Structures are given as structure tokens and as C-alpha cells.
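Work Package 3 (structural annotation) set out to generate three-dimensional models for the target panel prioritized at the project kickoff. During this period the team completed the workflow that converts sequence records into C-alpha cells, so that structures can be stored uniformly alongside our sequence database. As a representative example, we reproduce one entry of 716 residues exactly as it appears in the project archive.
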Amino acid sequence: MDDLESFKLQSFTIERKIGKTIDLQLGDVNYVSLPQGNLSSQSSLWGVNLDFRNALTNKTKVASYSIDLQQRSLIKVIINETAFSSFYLDAGTHILKDIPKFNGQNSLEIIAQYTTSGRLQEDILIQKTFFYDPKSVSKGWWDLDFQYGYPKNVMNLTNVSSSTSESTSRYNANNNHLGINLTYMYTHNLRVLHLLKYGLNYHVFGMQFNNSFRYGTIESSYGIANEYGKDNYLLQHSLLLNKPFKSPLFISSTINSTNKNFLLSKNFLFSEFFSTSLGYRLTGVDNALSVITQFKQDIFDFSHELQYSMASLKHALSFRYLNKGWLLSFNIFSNDKVPFSFFYGVTKSFKNGLEFQKSNTATRIGITKSNSSDFSHRLSLNIAENTDINADISYQDYRLGTRILSKQPVMLRDDYINFQNHNYLLRFSYKENYNNKSYIQKDSSVFLNTGLVFTGTKFAIYQGSLNSFALITAKNNLKGTQFYANKKEADMFGNIVIPLSGEMTVVASAPEANPWMDLGDTTFELNPSEFSGYHLEIGGIGTHAIMIILQDKFQNSLINETVTIVPVKTIVPIEEMKHTIGYGGRLIALGLVLGSYELRFDNSDYAPLRFKIRETDENLVRFGIITANSVPKTIFTQTKDALEKSRQKLLKQLYKTNSDNTPDDKDDPVNASDEASIQASDEASDEASDEASDDNQTNLDSEKDTLKEKDVIKND
């Protein structure tokens, strides 16, 4: 094997948000150009990009409207031809707030309905149609880019004269380039990009106009360039009409130094299944008309394409049928040079992963097998002019594979091993080319693709393109515990990176965490601006919970009494917690830590209760049945014998509570649930009865299942 190829850096970029309106980019910098026309061949620099912009944005999703009423009326708000809300307002001036805007085209009607002289009348107070883009900006918004560096791509240019010899002019990596781009919002609808690139024997100037209006969008680009003695220019216009048509109409024209092009395109939707696309293209050489008619259902589609130009006439007929593992297709082509050409394909997929394909050009046999969610293997054999064999085995994030391509008398072999996850892609490959057992080439290579994202002092490894992102980490009681965010699992470093695009909800969870922990915030609503990073933390301080059954001196449950748990001396500071005692006198409080506490009643008839949570206590600390009176006392966790006595006492008390209820109460679902719990086995009944209520909201049966799974009661 030859030595490993020398290291080659393909792309490296660092982006840093310096302030709310300043971004810094280093490395492989995108060299902004006009989007169409290929005005400049250089699109990337090794260098620096500094981006400044102001903070004028227009991202609010709601609006406010002022209306005047002459008399009391029923107000109807209709958005996109759908009733949004209705309500009565008295005569006078009112401001209607928080009327939502939806992405895309919006229609709004605000109607006042009232009765006059016994007749029902309606007045349209506001009627408007507008387009809403959450990424849009307001009038006066600007964005300024400064770019400086060296051309990334070194290219040879042919001589501008008719000579066939290679020109001595070429991109030189030692030639520095400067780029300045200013985008300005002149009106609420007109956005203009001003573009300037300057370097040794190299300059480009251009402008792009984007104007949105009621029925669509107009875009225009103008530019001139000179790259090492070669001139170029661009005049480009396009019109996209969304209304009044059911489907868009697109018109564009492009003129540059080498070509002139005009395009018109329209799609006609006649029904859910039937459509026709019409296109016309005019160039400096020829013009062509194309008509594509298509009929498409779930398992069947049929299309006919006609292309007519001054030089030729082309027909294409396509048919496709997919059902029960069978895929049948055929295509018929016809033009001036080839009057008739036919292609067919038959594919059959079997339940065991075997797939057979046959066409008039090749035969393929393949098998894909997954033995588990982590392990799979594939094998495919293509037999045609070239014989191509592919095989690979995948296990979790690893893939080992080989490919053999034979085209007499040359054979190519490519072996590789991949490791890929959300953090990075690592690939090692070994290639051989040989002719009649005589090696032409042997080489090996290593490819690594990864990146780092930073927000504040936090960073994470991430592989893939990002604009805005959220970095989720664990804190306090969740450190070292596996957690998830939007179904993605934390990596080995305890980080999750979620790409963001527009409004997004991030939901975090820790299913392996103790059920009595305080997880803190687990749902985050995000609406990032361009190039934003968020650091979100999941986890709380609380590691323990307490469960107490409270009664008065007459053994009556203290239902609906309000208490406050006050931390006296804890290992970390926590806030006071207010609770309402639930059914049967139960109080379950989560989010506590090791230390001393005082439980205080809002009712002055009951004195405070003091208790401690120690290191030796389980995550759920149970104090059993406690009698509250006017004398302060300290309560302690119960022994196994005391817990057994408390259980029996609680069961009797629950029977007494149920018997005291009215007949109507017997149909109450909560009481029915308690009765079902009491009739269960002793230990399961104790679980359901003791731990069933958290502020009168926790279902008994679900608590019983949770505690069984966590084996809380097994130590009793």
C-alpha cells in the first residue's frame, strides 16, 4: 500500500456572533455573488467576513386594528376565509389586539353585525389582503458585509483570443480580494443588493432588485465584470405571479456575454390527478415549446411530453405502476435522429429483503437485511456492460463496505469504513486500479468532516450545516443522566445540538431520571433571528419528594388546607413552596433537597411541623399519617413496622371517608378509583393510596404503575 496522501483541508469555517447585529466569519468565506447568470466564477475565499446590520425586523406574528362602532355589535374576525373569533362590543372606539398573521398570503375581514329597525345588518369594517414572511424586514433595514481574503479555487482561463494555447492569466492564490456588499430595504417591498468585488486584475459590480407586491415578486439583476482580461455582463429579469392564477406563472429573461435566454412557464391543475405544464424557451440559437401532460394516482401515473423547436420535434411517453412489491415502467422516445427508442424496467421486492430488477440495459439483484435496529447488511450485483458489485455491513454508527467495478480490461476496487453520527463523519478508504493484474494505481485516504458550535461559554461538536441552533445540556440533578431533546439522544459529552429554522419547539426529557426529581423547564419555544445560538439547560435542584397524610385530632383528613414548605437549612438554596392538601389528606411535594424544613399551615389552628431529609433517605421520603394540632412538633420518617400500622390505619380512614360521602359522591371517578385501589392487594393498595394525589391532580392508577416500575415499595 502506498503512503497515505498528504493532508488537504477542503473546508474550514468559524462563525462568531460578536453582538446582536454583528457577525464574524473566518476560514472558507462565502463570496456573495448575483444568484443567476454566472457573472463571476469565484464564489469562495479563504479569509474573513464581517457582517453588520441594524435591528429593524418585522417578525411579529400578530397585529392590532382600530375600529369604531356606532352601537353595540357582534364583531366577527375572519382570517383566510375561516372564522377566527366573534364577540360583542359596545359603541365606541376599540383596538383589537393579537390578530394572528400566517406565513404566506393572508386575507382578513372584520365585520360588525347589529340590529337596526328590527333588521339584521352587517358592515365590513376592515378588509385587506397581504403577504406575510416571518423572515421579512422593515423599511430602512440594511445589511453590510466586508470580505477580505484569497481565492479558494485556482482556475486556468483560456485565452480570450481565438488561440488554442493556454493563457498565462490565471487565479493566483497570492492575489488578495476585497468584497463589499450592502443590502438595503428602500420600501416595505423593495430590497436591493449592492455588490462590489475588487482585486488584482479582477473586479465585479452588480445590483439585484427584489420587489414583492400583491400578486407576486419581481426580481432584476444587473452586473459587469472583468476577470483577468475577460469581460462579462449580466441583465436578468424574472416575474413570478401567484395571483390571479390557481398555480404560479413564471417569466424570466437572461442576457450575458455568451447567451440570450427567455423562459415562460405555467402549470395548469385541472383536477387532483390531472395537470399540464406549458413552457416556452427562446435562446440566441433556437426556440422551443414544451407541453407535459400528466395523470397521477397513488399506484399509477402516465405522462406525455412534447418538445417542438425549429431544429427538431421530440416525443416522450412514460408509464409507471407500483403495487404489492411490483414496479413496472416503460418509456418511449422519438425524435428526428432516433425515430423510435424504447426502455422498460421491472422491479420485484420480496418480504425477505430480496429485490430483482430487469431492464433492457442491465440486470440487478440486491438484498437488504436488518437483523435488529442496530445491525443491517446489503449486497447488490449489477450486470450490464460494466459489472458492479456493492456490499456493506452496518452496525449502529459504523459501516464497512466494498465495491468492485469491472470494465474489461480494467478493474476498480474500493474498500471503506465509515463512522458517522451527529458529531462527525470519519471515513477511511483504500482504492486499487489494475489492468490485467498490473496495478495502475493504489492509494488510501482519510476523510474527516466535523464542526464546533459555540454559544456563550458552551460549545459542542456537530457535523452538518447550521444557521441558527440550540445547544441543550444537563445541569444539577441531571448531570450524568441520559436525556433527549426532540427525540435526539445526548452525545458522549452530554450535549445535544438542534438545528433551528424559523419558529420551533424544543422538547427535552429524561426518562431514566428519578420520578421525584425536579427537571425544571423541559419545553422551549424559540423564534431565532438569522445566525443565532441558544444554550438551553434541562434539570433542576430538587432530588427528593415527601409524602405525608395529614389529619386533625378527630382523625378527619385536612382536605383543601393550604400549606407552605419553608426551607430552614438546605445544602443549596431553594424557594418556598405552596401546596393544597389533596384527597384523603395526602400531601406530595417534589423538588426538595437534603436539609431541614418547616411545614406551615395557612390555618392558624394548626402549628408548624418540622422535618429533615437525610442522605440515607430514599428519593421519596414518607412520614405516614401525621396529626396536626396547635402544638409545633418534629416529624420523622417511619420504620417498616410503623408504615404497616399507618397503612392499616389509612385504609380504615379511607373506608370511613367513603362511607361519609353522599350517594352522589359514590359516582365520583376519584372515589371509585380509591375504592378500586383499596380492593387491590395489600402492598399495591398501599402504593395507590399513599401516593395517588399531587395537589388533587395525580391519577391513582398511573402513580401505582410508576412506583411499581421504580421499586419504591419493595423496601417496605
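The chain is about 5% helix and 55% strand.
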